[in-house]
């Protein structure tokens, strides 16, 4: 760990920390990914404009200064100024962080943003991250992902038994309950693994991004809904000492721009999926929903995973209780207004 | 008209236009209204912070410098710098503007924002307002309204016949098709009119705001969904010459803050309705959905009203076609991902 931090610090000095007011922003995502890459560029440009160049973020693509899972520690230590990541990656260090990456069978994008910004979620998120010496906030929204790519048709919950599926986090725990074997695997190995039978299925992202990996060539069943991630956040976290050193106006600029990025990411993504789906269909892929029996089995297993996590971790329970209270009021009004 | 403009100009000079960099913002809404009032204050404060005081809006409540329906003309003439209003109020001058206030049986909040900011809606909105010498943008979102207060139970579409209902715009035209009599009436007269039988029903806003008028004392049936306004925008428009005189950074500040206000208004409103609904129920009000037969009759009548407006006004057709194209792709992905 010390070695990594040192390496990151050296890289930061040579690559990005040259002038006062220039801050390194290490992304967990590739710069070339649709939406995720441009969102970071848009963020940096708008903050630059609004602060008159006083806060100029330099956007580093995946792995340039730090591997994705080490960004949190590196930003906390001050070797990197800010991170652009996915809160699920911090779940190994703080289980409740997973709930700020996505909530399986949880909120859609707007309910998620509303709970975090208005229902007390952000305060809990900051409480979870405080020991890491960083200040987090939502700064981009990932709309509902796909449920996953399968090489075999799934007709009932029994068909999940024994399947080797690339999926992590809470979603992986849920699939275990139904007898599947969740596995970790770098994105670059997915395609070959599906072809050789090392994998039977994989979860990745939404269609626009899944398309980049050419999974339609090696798996012909593309299932929805993305029950494990009905929506997700891109998180921005800033080294706490840097954050506290900024003026009110500078912090307001960052937070206001993040609101813009939240809307921008949702809006860019919602209609952009259709073209990818059409391309998959043209390539012989079946694009469809899981059978209701599968969705219900997943929902039941998700409730079991939540109960276990709540029993094991008070913070996990506290976050989930906050979300559920917000959700209840929200759902009642939505039900009255459904068209 | 000329008299009004002059009066407004004088008021503006004495009240708000004293120092360079101070701009008058005339709201169409009362400063005391929940969400609508505070949103304008939040907007002004954030723009002030982000521009280092270079753009300081002074927020005037309903009627202080101009009556609501005259704000557009007054801002265009430069007597007032900016307006904070509802695009439906401009429909008398430009019918297609109604579609930027709300789209009956149309989008929920996030679909509406996404279409406007990413699907070409904003360009059309600016095209419609260009002859008025103002630059409009969404700057606040109104989540789904209530369907309305009724003194009588509505069991079938036939029960709407002959009812005197306070409702304007496209919603009023739709109710006419079903034999109701839509009427205009100032908000202050609604309660008494319902009590005396001059009115049988009224539409106003969502529960948090409806509560201020005490309608639960005089009408015991509160119906949903708000089919006439599944979501709506608060619009900000700025005098075009003023807008063009600002720097890129200043315009970016205003637009970025409007994104923040869009999210803030949605988030503040979504869970806040529950308390008002509970209070109504405690007061003996029946809170429920219209019967399906009524919703379907309204949907059919809405399609007829759209067809008539599209035939009469090419811009109305152009806007609706843009929305429908966006909607189609959006709905397909939503259907795949429904939980």
TrEMBL record, chains A, B:
Question: A GO biological process this protein is involved in?
Answer: transmembrane transport
Q: Which InterPro entries match?
A: DctP_fam, SBP_TakP-like, TRAP_DctP_sf
Keyword Metal-binding on this protein? yes
The organism's place on the tree of life at top rank: Bacteria
Q: Which Pfam families match?
A: DctP (PF03480)
Amino-acid positions noted as binding Na(+) in the UniProt annotation, renumbered to this chain: 204
Q: What does the record give under GO molecular function?
A: metal ion binding
Residues the entry annotates as binding substrate: 145, 166, 203, 229
Q: Name one GO cellular component term.
A: tripartite ATP-independent periplasmic transporter complex
Question: Keyword Hydrolase on this protein?
Answer: no
The alphabetical list of record keywords is: Metal-binding, Signal
Q: Where is the signal peptide?
A: 1-20
Which PANTHER family does this UniProt record tie to the protein? Answer: EXTRACYTOPLASMIC SOLUTE RECEPTOR PROTEIN, PTHR33376
Can you name this protein?
A: TRAP-type mannitol/chloroaromatic compound transport system, substrate-binding protein
Q: What is the protein's species of origin?
A: Tistlia consotensis USBA 355
Lineage from the top down?
Answer: Bacteria, Pseudomonadati, Pseudomonadota, Alphaproteobacteria, Rhodospirillales
